[in-house]
Amino acid sequence: MALVWMYTSLLIFHFSFLKPSRALRNYPENEVTLLDSMSALGDLGWEAYPPEGWEEISVMDERNTPMRSYQVCNVMEANQNNWLRTRHIARDGAQRVYVEIKFTLRDCNSLPGVPGTCKETFNMFYYESNNPSLWFIKESQYVKIDTIAADESFTQTDVGDRVMKLNTEVRDIGNLSKKGFYLAFQDVGACIALVSVRVFYKRCPAAVLNLARFPDTVTGGDSALVEVHGACVDDSEEVEAPRMYCSADGGWLVPIGRCACRPGFEESKDHCQPCSPGTYKAAASDEYCSKCPPHSHAHQETADECTCESGFYRSRADTPAMACTKPPSAPENPVYTLNDTSVSLEWDPPQDGGGRGDVTYDVRCRKCPGDGRKCSPCGSGVRFLPRQLGLTSPRVLVSDLLADTNYSFSVEAVNGVSDLSPTARQQVTVNITTGQTVSVILKERKSKDSVTLAWHGPDRPDGAIVEYEVIYYEKNQRDQNYTVLKTKATVMTVEGLKPGTTYVFRVRARTDGGYGSYGGEIELETSHEDMLAIGDPNQSTILVVSVAGGVVLLIFLVACFVVSGRHCGYIKAKQDPDEEKVQRGRVKLPGSKTYIHPHTYEDPNQAIRDFAKEIDASCIRIERVIGAGEFGEVCSGRLKLPSKREIYVAIKSLKAGYTEKQRRDFLSEASIMGQFDHPNIIRLEGVVTKCKPVMIITEYMENGSLDTFLKKNDGRFTVIQLVGILRGIASGMKYLSDMSYVHRDLAARNILVNSNLVCKVSDFGLSRVLEDDPEAAYTTRGGKIPIRWTAPEAIAYRKFTSASDVWSYGIVMWEVMSYGERPYWEMSNQDVIKAIDEGYRLPAPMDCPVVLHQLMLNCWEKGRSDRPKFGQIVNTLDKLIRNPSSLKDLANVSTPDLSVGTVDEWLDAIRMGQYKENFASAGYVTLDAILYISLSELSKMGVTLVGHQKKILSGVQSLHAQGSQVQV
Ligand code: AMP
C-alpha cells in the first residue's frame, strides 16, 4: 500500500510539473464543449467502483486553483477491474461527439518490484441513455470506444529528474441518437492519472457569406456534409439560392449562390446599408451606390433612382444611370434647292441637342394661296423622301408640289424627351415658291448641222435667273445619250448636229432658288443640205408647253437624290453601286450568348477594346511573383478601381522584347476570357495595354492550380467535397459549351482553386493548347495535343467539340478522385492512344464511388454523341450531392497484383514506391513484418499524408486477404 501511495504521489507531483491550465484553455470556435473536467469547481461526482480503484483527488493548477482529477495505481495486485463512470452527458443535438483525454501513465519497467500483471493501457467505453440519473450500468452494456495507450509513458530516470509527458488522445463516437450518454474508463492494472476529460462536438459557426446568413450548424453524424441553405441578410435579395456545406470537422465548404443588396442599398462588410442622399442604386446587384447622374438629385436615403431637375426629363428607354435631358433647340440655317415642283431642304442640327444623341426632325408643310387667305396643310398629295417625320439626317426631299405655288415648310428638332415637355417645340421655317415653265420660241433657223432656238423667261421667277438649261437628244434615242447646254442668254445655236436627223429640245430656267419646270418638247429635223433658213426666217413659232412634259426627268432626278445623296449629274451618269455594308458580327449584341473568336477581327486591338476593360496601371499594386506563364511572370497583387472595393488579383505580364504576334497571342486570352461571366470561369478584371508592360488582370485564386492543390492535400477531402469540386468545373464547362466555346485543353492543371475551394476553368489563350502546355505532344498529323486528356477523334483528325471537352472532363474527374495522379501513370503517349483504341479505360481511383467511375466511363464513350452533355453531368452531380448515400458504394478497385515477394515490390504494386527507404530504415524488410503495421508506426516512419496512409493500410489488408485465400 505504501508503494501505491508513493507512486500516486509521484503522479500528483507531476501535475504541477505539467501545468495544466484552465485559464489558458481557449477552444476553437467550432467546438462546443459538453463536459470539461477542468472547469468543474466542486466534486466531479463521477462513479468509481470498486471503491479502492479510481480515486478523485484535488490538485492545484499553476494559479493555485484546485482542479479535480482521477487516478488509480493498483499495480501490485493482479486481476484489477476498476471502473470510473462520468455523469450523464447530454448530447445537445450532436450526432458525433469527440472525447479528448489528457493523462499520464507509468511505464511498468520504471516501477521497481511490480509483478508482470502491471498494465500500460486502459479502456474507454460509452453507454447511450435517455435517463440522466442511472446509478448502475452493467459492464456488458457499455460499448467500447478504444483501448488507450500512452504515446509517452514516464520513466524515473534519476532521483528528482523524472521525464514525463502528458498524453492527449482524442476519440470520436458517431451516430448518437439518445438524449445523452455516460463515459466510462476501465483500468485493468495500470498506474494512471486522468488529468482532464473534455467532451465536445463540432459545429460550423454562424457565418455570413455572399450576403447570405448561415446559422450555427451541428456537423453530421457520419462524415457526410450537411447542406445548409442561407438566408439573405436584411435589405438583400437572392440572386441564386445561397447554400453551403458544413463539413464533419466544422468548416464551411463549397459556397454556391449569393444574395445582392436590393435597389437603394449597397454592401458594407456583411450587411446592406442605404444609399446616402445624392446617390442611388437601381438594381439588386453587387455594385455600390452611384452619384446621381447630371441634372438629377436624390434628397432621401435608399433612392433606387434620382429625380430629374425641373425642365429635365428621362425617357422611358433611359436607364436610371443616364443623365436627365431636355428637348433640343430649333434646327438652324435652313437652305433649299428648288427643282421644278420638288424642293430639297437642308438645315444644320440644333445648337443644343438637350444632352441627348437621339435628335430627329419632323417637317410640316403648309400651302399658302398668297391672296391673303390663311395657309393650310399640304395634304397627302405631297411626298417626302425619305419620310416626313422622324428624319435622322438634317435633310428631306419634298416632291409632287404644285407648280407656281407658295409653300411654307417648318422643321422641328425632336428628341426622346420632347413629348414629356409641356413647352412648344422649337422650329425653323422656310417659304418657297415652286418653279414656273419657260415659254420657248422656236426660230426655225436650221442648217444641216445646227439649230437656233430663242425663248422667254418665266414671268415670276423664284429669285433672279442665273442661267437657262437646254437639253436635247436624237428622237427615240434619249436613253442612249443626251446633251445639256447652258447659257445666260435667251437664245442659243446648237451646233454639231447630224444632217437630216430629228432632235428633241427642252429648255428650263435656273434661279438662285433652284430649277424651274421644263417647257414642253419640240422636235426639229436638221436639213439634208446647207441652207440659211427653212421656211420664213421671220416666222416664230411660240410653244408654251405644259408642265407635264417634265415629269419623266423629275422621276429620274428624284431617284438620283435618294440613291446618292445630293449629287445628281446632268449628263447621264452611272450611279455608284450600292455600297455594301458588311456586318462582321464582331460587336457582341446585348444578350447574345455566342463566343466570338478573336480571329474574326481584322484588327485584334478592336477585339481587346470590345471585350476587355482598359485599366489604369496606377490602380494596380503588384505584390509577389506566383508563377511563370508562357509570355512572362504571373504575379499576385491588388486592384483598386475608383468606387470599387480593393480586390486581390493575378497579374500576367508580357515580357519585354515581344513581337507583335506575341502581343496579339498574349492579349487573345483576355479577349476570350472577357466574353465570359460565370462563377466557375476565371474572371477577367481588365487589361493594361496603354503602357508597358502589357498586363492581363484576373481574379486571384489563392490555392493555385488544381493538380498541385490536390497533390498537396492528398486524402484530406471527403467524397462530397470532391464531388463539389467536380460540380463546379462541370458547371463552368456547361457555360462554355452553351456559348459554343471549345476549350481543347481541359485538365486539372488548367483549373484554378480559390480559398473557398471553388474551382474555375482557366487558360484560354489561342496559342496555348499548341505551344504552352508541357503535356502537349506532336501527333502524326503535325498538331500538338495533350494526348492523355484528349478524345480519340480529336487526336486522330482534330475534331475538337464540346463532346471532346467532355472526354477531357472525364479525365479531370479521374485526376480529382485520385488526388492529382497522372492519368495512365507512366505509360507512353503512343501506348495510351493504342490502349484507348483497343477499348481500355482508366480504372476507378482508390475509394472512388461506383457512380463517379461510371460517369467517367460515360465521358469516355468512343462515339462522341454517346457521351453526356455538360448540362447532364451537372444534373447528375447535383443529385449525388443531394443524396450522399449514393456515393457509399465504392468501385471495385482492381486489386493491385500483390503476388509480390519483397516489400519494395509490394510498395511498387500499390504505387507507394516513394516510401521504400522509409520502410527499409524502419526495419520492415519482409512482407510478414508489414502485415501488422499500425497507423502510428506509419506516422513515425514519415508517412504523414492521410491519403498515403490509407493506401498503404488498404494494401496491407489486400495482403491479408490474399494470404487467407491461399490458406483456403
Ligand atoms: P498560366 O500562364 O495561366 O498557365 O499561369 C501560370 C501559373 O500562374 C498557373 O499555373 C498558376 O499557378 C498561376 N496563376 C495563373 N493565374 C492565376 C490566378 N488567377 N490566381 C492564382 N494563380 C494563378
Automatic annotation (TrEMBL):
Protein kinase domain mapped to chain residues: 620-881
Active site per UniProt: 745 (proton acceptor)
Topology class, membrane: Single-pass type I membrane protein
SMART domains, per database record: EPH_lbd (SM00615), Ephrin_rec_like (SM01411), FN3 (SM00060), SAM (SM00454), TyrKc (SM00219)
GO MF term set: ATP binding; transmembrane-ephrin receptor activity
Domain Eph LBD span(s) in chain numbering: 31-209
Domain Fibronectin type-III: 327-433, 436-529
Protein name: receptor protein-tyrosine kinase
Binding site for ATP: 626-634, 652
E.C. number(s) listed in UniProt: 2.7.10.1
Record-annotated SAM domain positions: 898-962
Top EC group: transferase
N-terminal signal peptide: 1-23
Keyword line: ATP-binding, Cell membrane, Disulfide bond, Glycoprotein, Kinase, Membrane, Nucleotide-binding, Phosphoprotein, Receptor, Repeat, Signal, Transferase, Transmembrane, Transmembrane helix, Tyrosine-protein kinase
GO biological process, one term: axon guidance
Catalytic activity reported: L-tyrosyl-[protein] + ATP = O-phospho-L-tyrosyl-[protein] + ADP + H(+)
Main location: membrane
Xref: PANTHER family: EPH RECEPTOR A5, RECEPTOR PROTEIN-TYROSINE KINASE
Source lineage: Eukaryota, Metazoa, Chordata, Craniata, Vertebrata
Gene Ontology cellular component annotations, sorted alphabetically: dendrite; plasma membrane
PROSITE patterns from the UniProt entry: EPH_LBD, FN3, PROTEIN_KINASE_ATP, PROTEIN_KINASE_DOM, PROTEIN_KINASE_TYR, RECEPTOR_TYR_KIN_V_1, RECEPTOR_TYR_KIN_V_2, SAM_DOMAIN
